[in-house]
Design brief:
Layout: E1 6-7, E2 13-14, H1 16-40, H2 82-100, H3 109-131, H4 137-158, H5 160-163
Antiparallel strand pairs: 1-2
Length: about 160
């Protein structure tokens, strides 16, 4: 049985695991782009909050309010709007996925893997802090993709052929 691989100009090959890493990183980036576009109001509809959004463009509770009522939340500490963070998250995932296996950056590959892994982990933690794990099918699917990305990156680091590159 043959394995599908893509060759780079320097002869290094991307196997199924590396392709899956790139695909998962880009897909989770696209989910964040989708969220940003919803919050910017560029996709129409009711925004991320659905019927609970109260008609606000980004959905959810008012700025600074805790989702369940009460005092201020972590959202009030954001330096930029959440929609901008979603957009930046998209850019971060796509750029890291693009540079991870570039032959010109091969000597930095291990560092880029760690940065991408940490990026996904921080995204998951912040999602939980912002939402409290509030039921959201798209959010859950995205977190599954990010956990899968982390697992694949860990396996990729342990692979003898990849640890040298």
């Amino acid at each position: 049985m043959s394995q599908t691989t893509l060759s780079s100009p320097t002869g290094s090959r991307l196997g199924p695991r590396q392709i899956a890493i790139i695909v998962l990183a880009v897909l989770t980036g696209v989910v964040h782009l989708y969220r940003a576009l919803l919050m910017f109001g560029l996709l129409g509809g009711m925004g991320m909050g659905g019927p609970r959004g109260g008609g606000r463009p980004g959905g959810g509770p008012p700025p600074g309010a805790h989702p369940g009522g009460g005092g201020p939340s972590i959202m009030s500490m954001l330096p930029v709007p959440l929609s901008t963070l979603f957009l930046l998250n998209f850019v971060g995932y796509v750029v890291l996925a693009a540079v991870l296996y570039l032959p010109a950056l091969q000597r930095y590959r291990q560092v880029i893997r760690w940065v991408l892994l940490a990026y996904a982990l921080v995204t998951i933690v912040l999602w939980y802090l912002f939402t409290g794990g509030h039921p959201d099918p798209v959010g859950y699917i995205d977190k599954i993709m990010e956990v899968g990305l982390i697992v694949l990156l860990l396996f990729d680091m342990r692979s003898p052929a990849q640890s040298r590159g």
